[in-house]
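Self-study notes.
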Amino acid sequence: MILLYLILIGAAMAQNEPRPPVGSSPAQPLPFSHRAHVSIGLKCVECHQTAATANAAGMPSVDFCMRCHVAVRKDSPAIATLAQHQKDRKAVEWVRLYRLPDFVYFSHRRHHTKAQIACAACHGEVAAQSVLLKEKSIAMPACQACHDARKANNNCDACHDPHPG
């Protein structure tokens, strides 16, 4: 009986949209424009290098950013802060827009490489955004609807670990 109760509570929690809500743009530690970076020819996977190979898409290191910014806009206060982060060997603590509960499994590799789903399908037209917004819901019904539309596995164990911890 207790197990059934815990399963029902977990299912109810999974229906809620993980924070932040869709359409929001939480304050970030540094200004960053995807539009500006895409306009010079950068591709998603150049900065988010593990999107095609791992569960998480990853964030570029400060060293990666400073390869260009050692010369590009180096006098901007934001780049000065970035350079200080590099000097201090400190990562930028970006505020995540998409964070699933610990009991949910998601693989960027599987979706990007195997299923050939474009980044924009979930993240919206990031290339046109100066300020990144949470574009799509990552609540369970939204994921299930996408799986249904693509005739993908919608079994519980496709996304939920039956033996957590």
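Second protein, same conventions, sequence then structure:
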Amino acid sequence: MTSFFGFRRRCLQAAWAAALTPLAGVASAQRRGTPPLGTALDLPSLPWIGGDALPALQPQPGGVLVLYWWASWCPVCVKQSPLMQALHQAQSGTDLRVLGVSADKDMAAAQTHLDKNGYSFPSVLWASGRAPMLWVPDGVPTVWVYDRAQRLVQAHTGLMPAEAIQKLTRWL
């Protein structure tokens, strides 16, 4: 017979597995995982969450872009997103920009999540197959940092500690 703690451990493991499960439906031309350091930014036009059909936020020349992959259904993102919001607010007016990329399949779910939590970092919707990208992370949350030359300089999948997020400013 399974103990309560064994059951609880299996539930927590299932939650982590769900959060880090490979994003479904990745096109075969795409590579899953983390691009090698030094890889150039590959950011196609994606729809803004909020309804505007505008192209995705492109980094300013000489600016640093923090690409934050998240999803409304991700239990780990619930802990990570407030930290990314804090970074976004703290760096407002600087050359460091946070761009969220939602892995949600539904625009409404992503918008509701942002509104409910008061997140103001700009986000776009990536839906597998509709917006081809050369690289797609294995799971969420994932943070990719592109330096002033628009090259990948840092990558992290899973919960990123607050101290590590604060240190992203070192790329400025």
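Instructor comment on the second fold: The first strand starts at residue 31 and ends at 32.
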